[in-house]
Amino acid sequence: MRYSHPDGELAGQPIGYWSWAAHKAVVGHIREALGRHGVTQPQWWVLAQLADAGDGRTREELTAVLGGYLDVGGLLDSEMDSVVARGWAEQDRAERLRITAEGAQLHGELARLQRSLRARIHDGIADEEYVQTLKVLQRMIRNVGGHAWHH
After folding, report:
1. Long-range contacts: 145-148, Cβ < 8 Å, 24+?
2. Are 42 and 79 in contact (CB under 8 A)?
3. Contact 50, 105 (CB under 8 A)
4. 84: how many CB neighbours lie within 10 A of its CB?
5. Among the residues of 14-75, which ranges form H helices?
6. What is the pTM (predicted TM-score) of this model?
7. Which residues in the chain show pLDDT less than 70?
8. DSSP-based helix, strand, coil % in the chain, nearest 5
9. For the residues of 84-103, what is the DSSP string, one character each?
């Protein structure tokens, strides 16, 4: 791979820019691929959380897990409504959401898509490099008093 700068210059490059550029490229790639299937990224997240939740999940439980994902917390209710309206999940009287057969089928298709997207994004990157990158980013987040968590 050809890099933008020699190593000595890369060491002085701004992390804010490069983390933003990576976010924009990767998230844009994922959202575009999901969009070709008529699904938003938050809808995918809801389906993924419901897929293994035999007893379902409440909206509050889903929001607790997904609320911090890419700052979509305020939009989650409408995304959950959309998942129900499209027949991918049902909401019972106790307000628990459960995935439907149609939703489970879609989840399976999208899970395969996500695996292929991850493979493309990680192409040529060893697990050790990836882990080290995440550890560096987590230290930087901690260094500035930030907090980030992903299940």
Report:
1. 148/68
2. yes
3. no
4. 16
5. 15-35, 41-51, 59-66
6. 0.88
7. 73, 151
8. 65, 5, 30
9. HHTTSEEE-TT-EEEE-HHH
